[in-house]
Protein: Arginine--tRNA ligase
Amino acid sequence: MKEQISQLISQALETLVAQGSLPGDISPRIQIDRTRDKSHGDLASNIALTLAKSAGRPPRDLAAELCAALPPSPLVERTEIAGPGFINFFLSDDSNQAIVRAIIEQGASFGHSEAGKGQQVQVEFVSANPTGPLHVGHGRGAAVGDSLCRLLAATGWNVSSEFYYNDAGAQIDNLALSVQARCRGLTPDDDQWPEDGYRGDYIADVATAYMAGATIDAEDQHVTGAADAEDLDAVRKFAVAYLRREQDLDLKAFATHFDLYFLESSLYQSGAVEETVTRLVGNGHTYEQEGALWLRTTDFGDDKDRVMRKRDGGYTYFLPDVAYHLNKWQRGFKRVINEQGADHHSTVTRVRAGLQALQADIPEGWPEYVLHQMVTVMRDGEEVKISKRAGSYVTLRDLIDEVGRDATRYFLVARGPSSQLTFDIDLALSQSNDNPVYYIQYAHARVCSIMRKLAEQGESWNPESGLDSLQRLQEEHEKALLRRLDRFPEVVAGAATSLEPHNVANYLKDLAGDFHAWYNAHKTLVEDKALRDARLALSEAVRQVIANGLDLLGVSAPESM
RNA sequence: GGGGGUAUAGCUCAGUUGGAUAGAGCAACGGCCUUCUAAGCCGUGGGUCGAGGGUUCGAAUCCUUCUACCCCCGCCA
Structure:
C-alpha cells in the first residue's frame, strides 16, 4: 500500500518538475508514514516539508500543488493538507477492505515475504555448556533466538540454527570431579568435596545414573554409564551426555529446535585450532610474553591484547571461538547472527578482532550480535534466586513447569533484548486480563468459538459471500481492525530487519485489543447473512493473523481456553 | 578508571528509526454478564520523556556534557 502511494507521489513530482514548479535536480526520498490519529487519514507524507527548502517554497503551497498533480487512483478517497504541510491520504473503503481477502487467500503465509531471497543465514543461540540445567537467562536466549529464526525464515531467509558448546575444558573437568565425588558418596559440605565443585542436586542424579549403568540418548550424545567411580574420563563423557540430554528436554519443553550441535572438541580433533594459531602467527599479529602467546587484538579495536595460548600450553576459550567462527565462514555463511547474554559482551570485539587478524577477507562487522540483558525472577514482589535443583539459579524447567511454555516464551520475548527483564511469576500465572499471553490467545479462541456457535446453529460460513460483502464493514471498530491487519506484514518485516521479535508481541497485543473491543460492541452472528458473512470474514482474518504472529513467537494458538 | 547497556505515568514497558496533541497494560476510581466464552468491554484521573547544552521547519528519538542503576574488564566460559 505504501509502495503504491509512493508511486502516485512520484508521478506528481515529475509533473511539477515538467511544469517548472520544481527544480529538476531534486532527488527526494519519498517517505510514507502510518498516521497515529485517524483524523489524519490512513497514510501521510512529509514530502512537501522536506522539499520546501530546496524548492524555496512554503511547504503548504508545495503540498497543495502536489495534491493537485496527483493522478487519480481508486485507492485514494481524498487527500488533505494538514499541520505544517503534511499530505494526508484517506484511503478508499475498497483498498482498506482488500486486506481481508489477502489474508484469507494467503492463510498461514500472510505476512511473510521474500526479502531474504533465499540467502543463507546462521543463527547461533543458547550455546550453554553442559554443566547444569538451563537457567532463565538461557531461556531468554532460546526464546529470542528461536523467534529470530522464525522471523528470518518468514522473510525469505534460509536459516540454520546452531548450538555450540564446550565439552572438554576446565569447567567440564570440574563437572567430572563433582560427579565423581558424588559417586564416592561425598556431599558438597564434606571436606574432600572438590574446590569450586558444582553443588546442585542434579550432580547427585548424574552420579546415581552413572553408577546404575544407565544409557543416555541425547540429540548428539549417546553413552552408557561405566559404573566405575575411578574412571574419570568415563565419568566426564557420561556427565556431558547426561546434561546435554537434560538440556534437550528443557529445549523440547520450550519448543526450540536446533539444526546442528557443534562441539568445541571437534575443533581440536580436526586440527582447526592449530591451523588458526598457525595463521595468526604467520600473519604477524602475535607475540610471546611471560611464556604465553598473545594476539595483538588492540590492532583491531580491542582495549587490550589477549592471551591465546596459556603458559601451561592450553588454549584460552578465545582461540577456539575464533576457530569456530572461521569454520562458520568456511561453511559459506555470509551472514551469521549470534544471540548471547550481554555478560559475554566482551567477546564481540575479541572474536571480530581474531577474525580480522586471520586476513581471510571476512567483513569487519561479521558476525552480527544480538545481546540480551539480564533476567531477574520475581515472586510475591521478591527476587527469586535459588533453585533446589540447580543450587544457585532459577532453572528454565522450573519456570515452564510452573507457568507453562506459552507464558514463559511470551514473557521472555516480549521485551526488547537490550532491556533488563523482570520475570514476574505471579503475573505470568494470573488468568486475567493482566496477562497479555492469554489476552492474545483468548482473541484467537473467541473467533473459533464463534465458528463453533455458528455450526451449532446448523449454519456455515460462506467465505465467498463474506468477501463479496466486505463493503458492509462500516463500523469504526471494523475500520480500526482493517487498519491494524494491514500493518502486519510491515511489522514482521521490521522485526526481522531490526532483529527485535518483541515488536510482534506488541502488535499482537494491540490487535487482540482491537478485536475484543469490536466483539463487545457488535454481534457477529446477526440475522443479515451478508453482514454476518462479512464479519465472519473479518473475524477469520483476525484469527489467521494472530495465529501467524503467535507462531513467530513460538506460542500456541488454542481453539478454546 | 575503561568498555557496553538502560533511564518515558505510582509499577511493568511500547514508541513505526527525525513528524502532527508522547501511548498500552497493571495499580486507583466508576460502570457493563437472561444476548457469539466477563481470561472480555466502556469511562475517569495520572507526564519537566533522568538533567543541561546543541543540530532544524520539527527531537523521547541525532550530537555533546553530566547524573543514577545493571553487565563486563581472568593465562575462566
